[in-house]
Amino acid sequence: MIRCLTHQEIDKRWYDALIARCPNAVWYARSAVLDVASPGWQLLVDDTAEAVMPLTRRRRWGMEYLYQPYGLQYLGVFATRTIDDALCSAFLQAIPASYNLVDICMGPGTFSISRSYIAPRVNLCMPLPKDAASHRAGYAKGHIRNLRTSIPTDVKWSQELVPEEFLILFQRTTARRHGGLRERDASVLGSLLKLAAEEGTLRWMAFRRQDQLLAAMAFVHWGGRHILFKTAVSEEAQTFRAGFHLVDGYLAAHAGAHELFDLAGSVDPAVARFYKGFGASEVPYFRVLINRLPWPLRWLK
After folding, report:
1. Cys-Cys crosslink for 158: which of 12, 18, 177, 206, Cβ 3.0 to 4.6 Å?
2. Is 31:15 a contact under the CB 8 Å cutoff?
3. Location of each CATH 3.40.630.30 domain in the chain
4. Which fold has domain 2-122+285-298?
5. Which of 91, 107, 118, 60 is nearest to 290 (CA)?
6. For the chain, how many helices (H) and strands (E)?
7. Looking at the predicted structure, is the pLDDT value of residue 291 above 90?
8. What is the pLDDT of residue 150?
């Protein structure tokens, strides 16, 4: 039987210990991350299957609904055994009826049967290279050409940043190119970066000219997975192909770790091609959209 726990009822030590035992565990699912990204989250629990599903909720127009928090690519069902379609479907059916709208993303391996309310999305992942000497062996030819672009002599590599300066660059580059970043989402992003920095899971690769930050990538390393969390590249840095150099530098620095490099995918075809050019393979995950809102509200989400 699957039961629903309110936020106050969740034993977070127990929850985090269970997540750590799940083969499909990801940093996004940790309680501290959820507390930042979706305060007041609830939890579905199947004690027999040793499986859980965080419920990230929000209130609008006087109604609560489930949503995918900013910065968290997917959540879904996490279990100590291999998950399957039946288990995930049971969790979806157990979502309280009070949530008339469900718009969330569930992780890889969640569904094997097509349904009208499920839309596949694509993540991109690859093993970290075996060694730094041959780490470019799987790169596309175009990526090799771009990496021949020289970095200006007055531009230096950096792995020392603070979240605040990254957020400033992100807001005037990546966020602006995609229509801007809402104040609420900017606050969540800043808090997630600070959390990762405080817990020691945050890694940086960046380019500076003296004190000026030109380009940076934030990575999160947890549970044998290196997630390319967020990227910010200025127009000037694009001229010397900073994005190519930053990913390449990270792969070289962590070669031989026998861990997974998670580029987090993209719905933008150009960004997806950029990631694939490093040798990443497609890994499907799923958007779940269940809309039970009354007819006048159904199209206003």
Report:
1. 206
2. yes
3. 129-258
4. Aminopeptidase (3.40.630)
5. 118
6. 11, 14
7. no
8. 96
Buried b / exposed e over 71-83, threshold 16 CB at 10 Å, is: bbbbbbbbbbeeb
For 197-207, write each residue's pLDDT tens digit: 999 999 999 99
What's the CATH code, domain 129-258? 3.40.630.30
Query: Tokens 């959209």 sit at which residue?
Result: 289
Least confident of 64-78, 114-128, 239-253: 114-128
CA distances to 159, 230, 273 from 218, rounded to whole Å, are 10, 5, 20
Report angle CA 7, 13, 16 to the nearest 5 degrees. Answer: 90
Query: Considering the chain, what percentage of its residues have pLDDT values greater than 90?
Result: 77
Confidence label for 301 from pLDDT (cuts 50, 70 and 90): very low
Q: How far apart are CA 226 and CA 247, in angstroms?
A: 12
| 226, two tokens | 């290196």
Both tokens assigned to 195: 């959390």
* Predicted TM-score of the model (pTM): 0.93
Phi-psi region of 105 (alpha: psi -120 to 50; beta: other; left: phi over 0): beta
Separation of alpha carbons 118 and 102, rounded Å: 11
